[in-house]
Amino acid sequence: MKRLMIALALCVSANVSAAVYKCEDKYGRVTFSQVPCAVDAEKIEVREVSAIKSDLDVQAINQRAQERVEAAEQARAARARAALEERRHQDNIKAQKEIAEAQREQARALRAIPRW
Fold first, then answer.
1. Confidence (pTM)
2. Once rounded to an integer, what is the mean pLDDT over residues 45-55?
3. 32, CA 20 to 30 Å: which among 11, 23, 96, 110?
């Protein structure tokens, strides 16, 4: 019920127009008022701007938001893949260094064996 009342209030406020009067004083200054300031005040109809978006506007906004979310998810996934590749690369370098050190130790051990 509360939602219905809010929706009705928004619909009514979307179509409200206000009267504004344009007045010019003896010095030529122009003022605008909600009440007539003189007998010769010019009445101007002003429509209030509605904050309600059309369904197409809402759909377009939702579509752009969804695209931004998807782009952010793709960027996050790309960063995660890059971080994983970097870890693998660093692990590979570490393994190669360990292999090289083991080969050097093996060569030293072979040189230390007495030859008969």
1. 0.43
2. 68
3. 11
